[in-house]
Amino acid sequence: MLDNVESNAILDRLPAHLQQYIKPQNYDDYSPINHAVWRYVMRKNVDYLSKVAHESYLEGLKQTGISIDHIPNMYGMNRILKEIGWAAVAVDGFIPPAAFMEFQAFNVLVIASDIRQLEHIEYTPAPDIIHEGAGHAPIIANPEYAEYLRRFGEIGCKAISSARDYEIYEAIRHLSIIKEAEDTPQEEIEAAEKKVDKLQNETAELSEMAQIRNLHWWTVEYGLIGSIENPKIYGAGLLSSIGESAWCMTDKVKKIPYSIEACKQEFDITKPQPQLYITPDFAHLSLVLEEFANKMALRRGGLEGIKKLINSKNLGSIELSTGLQISGDFSKVIEHEGKPIYIQTSGKTALSHREKELVGHGVKNHPNGFGSPIGTLKGINLAIEDMSPRDLSAYGIYEGKKIELEFEGGINVAGEIITGTRNLQGKIILISLKNCKVTYNQEILFKPEWGNYDMAIGKEVISAFAGPADNLSFDLITHKTSSTTIKSKSTPEREELASLYASVRNIREGKNAKFSLDAALELLQKEHPKDWLLSVEIYELAVGKHEKLAKEALQNLELVKSRRPDIAHLIDGGVNLINSQLVKN
Fold first, then answer.
1. Would you say 326 and 371 are in contact if contact means Cβ atoms under 8 Å apart?
2. SS3 for 120?
């Protein structure tokens, strides 16, 4: 996919399983109406946000090369973003949370390249280039926040999901697509909303991914910074919404000091948020993130971590105290006195050390699962991993020797040792045996006729996390979504309206135009009586220069307001902004 993207050193590091989500931006597909929507939102936002956004916002707009007048070109953004150590890629709407966070870990900003319709100019539940480009990009110019974002991605992509998480992701993605699409029947939207509500309101223990996704929402997307008395905006969802950026500053939105408790607060992407969290500074975000990470199976491992992986029904990994990592679909754990004493995967499994697959222990070598005891030998105080060569020889753990090992908890391994594998520190991490039988009480866990047996060495599980230890061990290029974003339909009426917008834009930029401002307004009044944004643009160009035309544009806007009272505030907002800037100049 990177063949179609102007790359840089950051993008070149992306693994193939992330590249599968990237799509070309197709900049020429943006219509003049799309550019007008961008311009209106950005002009309104910059005017308002200069008063209420974190100080990094306006400076970040300059540093990231984001124009107020034109939808940002991803290729141009990448040339500028690389100066602050980041890059940007275009994707199609929502992508799975783990992938989104992993992009962040690589210092890559994921931008949904579609743009909201004029009808949804204030807010859209679907991710779009206004949200991503005008919301996320400027704040990452702040080094402290950028590091928080990268670190969040690094930790977040290791969070263990549940089957329910993916079901919710698909339901929300579908809802965001049909709600943004034109002409979607109301009953279809209502059915999709009911499904999302039902899933989100089900009583279920929140997975690690669900909890860290909540933290992401209440910081990266909808975060406030400062004090409850004087909050400033830094969350991208607020920075990109002309409606919610004003709404969030009112007393109608509850303000709560940000803490790890936010991980339990779920959200609804289709509605304005009833409460928001305030961090005193960006450093506090990182403190809460580390506090949460300390509770994750990534750092705690143990029996609980293995059970999380089993319940996730997804590819995951554990790391043993020797550094040996086992990656696969975990299907079984035998426990004793609150500790795991045997683990089992099903299907393709790979063994790694320090995120690098061990030679001869990929999925081709372990296509049908992997099982191994964990822990210490019964009656022996010294763990196998801590034994010196002399100790190993004394206990008969030696190449070519037949041996029977009984582990604490009752796992028994009997066979002939073929060889052992050691790490760079000299610790033995794997022992291969032939003619091997593994039992637990009366249960047979491995039979000699199944082939050679590889026994992992480790007295405890120190980590459990989502995904493989070595990304190259598995074919991860399997992303298929149940739905794709729906593009606006092309009609003669829409093409004509776009032509009018293009003429007004060309006049503003000093280029040749198909229609004059007078002709554009006249045709707009006759053929497109519901449109309002172009009249605002015509008024902007005419006021102070062509007063008769400016007056006619205002009269037309009053007519539109009488027909469409629901968008009267948008018209007033645009006109008032023009008038205030006229006074300043």
1. no
2. helix
Least confident window among 10-14, 72-76, 568-572: 72-76
| Residue 480 reports pLDDT greater than 70 | no
d(CA 309, CA 321): 18
Phi/psi of residue 216, nearest 5 degrees: -65, -45
Q: Which residues contact 1 (CB under 8 A, 6 or more apart)?
A: 19, 20, 22, 23
How far is residue 352's CA from residue 369's CA, in Å, rounded to a whole number? 15
- Is pLDDT above 60 for 202? yes
Contact indicator for 357, 351 with CB cutoff of 8 Å: yes
Identify which of 122, 133, 102 has the alpha carbon closest to the alpha carbon of residue 14.
Answer: 102
Angle formed at CA 110 by CA 104 and CA 113, multiple of 5 degrees: 175
Q: What is the spatial distance between Cα 155 and Cα 176, in angstroms, rounded to a whole number?
A: 27
pLDDT, tens digit, 9 for 90 and up, residues 224-240: 999 999 999 999 889 88
Q: Smallest Cα–Cα separation from 321: which of 346, 340, 294?
A: 340
Residue 489's alpha-carbon distances to 31, 101, 117, 375, in angstroms, are 12, 33, 12, 62
DSSP element (H, E) containing 311: helix 302-312
Confidence category of residue 34, pLDDT binned at 50, 70, 90: very high
| Distance (Å, whole) CA 356 – CA 429 | 14
The two tokens of residue 457 are 């060495």
The model's pLDDT over 433-467, given as tens digits with 9 standing for 90+, comes to 999 999 999 999 999 999 999 999 999 999 999 99
Confidence at 1, pLDDT banded by 50, 70, 90:
very low
Angle at 565 between CA 559 and CA 566, to 5 degrees: 135
How far is the C-alpha of 82 from the C-alpha of 413, rounded, in Å?
A: 54
Q: Which residues of 539-550 are buried (b: 16+ CB within 10 A; e: fewer)?
A: bbbbbeeeeebb
Closest CA to 414 of 444, 389, 457: 444
Helix (H) or strand (E) holding 172: helix 163-180
